[in-house]
Amino acid sequence: MKKTKIAYWATTTLIFLWEGVMPALTSNSQIAIDGIRHLGYPDYFRVMLTVFKVIGSVALILPMVPGRFKEWAYAGLGITFISAVVSHWAVDGFSGQTIFPIVLFGILAVSYTQYHKMKALAQITDPSRLATA
Fold first, then answer.
1. pLDDT tens digit string along 41-82?
2. pTM of this structure
3. Rounded alpha-carbon distances, angstroms, from residue 50 to 9, 23, 26, 54, 83
């Protein structure tokens, strides 16, 4: 259980920092604005994407958020990573900007699998915890 918790919290914290904290602090920078425009998206998409990334990453990091909301957060963040790969590949071809979202998707996948391992282990040790997970 200890290794599972460490793996979960390490990967979830990385996702929170990269997809929650960083966009919240840098989404109005000129680099972020130019990056979204370069991919062909309108400016309102940058704002919307930032809000959803922050909400999703906060949902993952807070233990009191119900499991159903965490599932939606994992799905939403996974879709953003897949969309980033497609967008960068379509506009710039295969490059480092195409590979990086794949790496983040892998980190998210580890967080997701560890979350479910922790949930299963918690149910085995204390079946009443399933209702709150």
1. 999 999 999 999 999 999 999 999 999 999 999 999 999 999
2. 0.86
3. 22, 6, 9, 6, 14
